[in-house]
Amino acid sequence: MRELIGQCQSCEKKVYCENGFFDGEQIGGKLLCNKCAEKAEKEA
Questions:
Q1: Are the C-beta atoms of 4 and 14 separated by less than 8 Å?
Q2: How far apart are the C-alpha atoms of 31 and 14, rounded to whole Å?
Q3: Which domain of life does this protein belong to (predicted)?
Q4: Is 17:2 a contact under the CB 8 Å cutoff?
Q5: Global pTM?
């Protein structure tokens, strides 16, 4: 099962919940795709 959660607030890619697993991260109140979340963590 694949459900749309929203869009990445950095690159606007669609973020999904797939089979009960969130395919992204919420950092500082922002919804981010995995790629942008990794980039944000490296910059922090």
A1: yes
A2: 10
A3: Bacteria
A4: yes
A5: 0.83
